[in-house]
Amino acid sequence: MKHRSALVRSLFTGLFLLSLGGFAAEDVKFMDARIFTPLKGSSVTAGYVEIENKSKSPRKIVLSSVEGFKAFETHETIEDAGKMSMKKVDEYTIAPESKLELKPGGKHLMLFDPIKKIADGDTLLVKFKIDGKEHSVQFKVIPRTETDHSHDHH
Amino acid sequence: MKLKRIFQLIGLVLLVCAGTLGYLIWKELKGPTMGGNFSLTLRGSQWTFNEDAKKLNLIYFGYAKCPDVCPMSLSYVGTAFSKMSSEDLKKIRFLFVSVDHENDDPGNVADYATNFFPEFLGLSGSKKQIDDTIKLFPASYMVEKNPKSYLGYSIIHTDRVFILNKKGVVIDTIDSLRDSDVILQKIKEHI
What we know:
The structure holds two protein chains of two kinds.
Chain A lengths: L1 H19 L7 E9 L7 E10 L5 E8 L2 E12 L2 E7 L2 E3 L3 E5 L4 E8 L8 E8 L2 E10 L12
Chain B lengths: L1 H29 L8 E4 L2 E4 H4 L3 E7 L6 H14 L3 H4 L2 E7 L7 H9 L6 E3 L3 H8 L6 E5 L7 E6 L2 E4 L5 E5 L5 H11 L1
Parallel strand pairs in B: 3-4, 4-5
Antiparallel strand pairs in B: 1-2, 3-8, 6-7, 8-9
Helix pairs in contact in B: 3-7
């Protein structure tokens, strides 16, 4: 009996701690995940996604793997008086109950040297670590020249 | 004595007005001074602006390994071009100049430019050719080494399109490259 109540107490404590800061998959939602098809004449491309943090705690997101590319990094484009520069970042932090949009001209996944043929319509598995726990997202490969980047959000 | 001071004051005001007017007239007659002729490389052959210029010429400085800004800006310009009539397309040329002389070769730059519109010209060149060209325009670039990145570098560069007349003189600038209709409107103002 004593053991059972201790177990229940531990369970509730665990759930309480999880609600405070632990990661649950449903806490973080990925939307409109896309990678532009690599262009002729270039060995790099970029990926974009909208990430929503529904929890009451900030979330740290680290890119851990991207299918089909030799190397991958998280970057941020910065504009200063008509000049564009790019900064490599180790992680993105999303404030509680807010969204982070990776979009052209801003934060983006930078992908180097495709190791297989990547074509329009493919889907590529991208893995992130959210506060240390792995989370997989399917990114759709879309042509760079098809749209004006005014992408519909699903 | 007082009258003399008034005449002196009126004379001074007239002199300032005449000077200002003269400067404005001189500036108007002189016209824009940025731009000029330049030579670069197109698929391994020398390409000289004044031998191949059209009525209207657009120029953009970037690099083929730019993953985010260059392809975004170029795709908006490409979309603007795809909205133009075939008659207007005969009068206009778009030049993409790579400032990455160490990593971009003439073949890949020329291929890269055509991703966005088949008639876009992708030009490259030696460091001297690129520097001699970019200094003609209100543009710049700077290679930033980044050993922590897989690429090892990135290039800070101007993200603007300059509109040139047949002589290579800058007649306008497109500062905002995030709307193909705005780009098209600017082109139509000059074509």
